[in-house]
Amino acid sequence: MKKVYQRIIDPGKGDCMQAAMASLFDDEYENVPSFIEYDNFYELWNQYLESKGYIGKGIFHNKNWNILLNPTYECWNEHRFYQKALINHANIEKVEGVNSLFYCTVLSPKYFKWDNISFQCHAVLCDKNFNIVHDPNKEYEGIKSYPLSSILDYSGIISIHNFVKIK
User: What's the Cα-to-Cα distance from 138 to each of 5, 7, 8, 20, 113, rounded to whole Å?
Assistant: First the structure.
């Protein structure tokens, strides 16, 4: 993995996705689309994945994050989660990732606020043990933890993208 760092650090307009994807695929920053410039970037995202020989096969979600987003739901209902889509050791062991690394999101240490959830996410890379192995924001080198990581577990990761090699 080549560590590529983001060049734009701005809430809701940063390029951490672009830098994280470049790092994950050992690519140059300039070769990765600037996803943040598009309202619906998924088509571009999928095209880039395919150019690297991968496809997206779902997202693993942090159960604790979903409960925090809907804390009163369990007052009247039993929480039911699709177990195969949850972040946990059993599920992550079943997937390969890209050289055993994964694109994932955490809460932004700099911009997370409860009243502004749309700008909360920050792209990083993790390994199969949920260790953050690269944060594309140079300011976060040496960071001890991400927001709410003691509550969320899994190093504060809120989602992990499952990329599968095209056969």
Answer: 6, 9, 11, 12, 21
